[in-house]
Predict the structure.
Amino acid sequence: MIQKYLIKVGIFLLNCSYSVFKLLPTNSNKVLFLSRQSNKPSIDFRMIVSQLEEDRDVKIVIMTKRIEKNMKDVLFKNVPLFLRQMYHLATSKVCIVDGYNITVSVLNHKKCLIIFQIWHSLGAVKKFGYLALKTPYQQMIAKELKMHKNYSYIIAPSMEIKKYFKQCFGYKEDHFLLGTLPRIEYLKTHHRVNKEKIYRKYPQFRNKKIVLYAPTFRTQGTDRTQEIIDAFQNSKYLFILKVHPNTKTKYHVSNCVYDCREFSTLQLLSVADYVITDYSGTSLEAASLKKPVYIYGYDFEDYQKDPGMNYDLKKEFGKYFFEDAHALYECIAHEKYDKQVVIDYFNKYVVQTKDVTQKLVDLIIEKGLEDEETDYRLFEKTS
């Protein structure tokens, strides 16, 4: 297959270029953050950087850029980006990623480079990585692009999630560490600040019962978002629609329905009285604040087949799982929520800890910057 050989040639050329960069000395205090999830650093990256700079004299480099897919942009944007990434990978002591990154996985790195994978989603409702490969072609591409290779450590939010991470990433026990992402700390410490920011922008939100709908991104299948919008339009609730940034669909909205694009889902959770989501990590983020969480899984059967789910949200949420928008509305409007459901859900899938950002930074310093083996109560290698 010609694509297979083109990939091999491309990786060979990248490694040839990288061999020149590797002649440069390593900065023992340099920490590189790489992501292709968005064009700006995530809250997890920002909190780690802030704590690192407070604790130690480090050189921080942050490179967050979505990978271009059309041929013109591949040549004129991706190639220069890869060259810059190679320079910083060759001269850094630690690299932190939150997803698959081509240069991290396909290049032959210096032995002293320590790579942490902190994954961009809290939890693993959806299958990804090696568990999401459906066809021989996908398997071939993943093999040739060395998907998720070269990680020194992978942070898993619980023993339950670690079971799925092992299969999704293709790693054995000794690469995993238990720990919660900094965003959990952010949600709790910035709750009031975010609420006031939103109220200043939308004073009409004050003293209202607010429903936040934050679905995951779908590449195929039926979109029944309009049905949930219609169910809440002209109701006693104020409805916030927070679709994924990649969603291009335009929805019909009228009274009491808002699309607050200037605020993130994490920020909007601060004003939400009720949270509706589906197969997104938002369910765990909302559960960390003990918010009533409802699952709108109208495509549950199809989603189980492609891309697939690691665990069954219908079982986890019971009577708060809905395939019908009107029934979901009636539940919010007329039934008292049993918060033990979200408490149990969060405790099962996320390790509850305090000072998680500090402990993660301590780990980065000890495991990465100082090369010392230290016993951590939070970040212990799992067995």
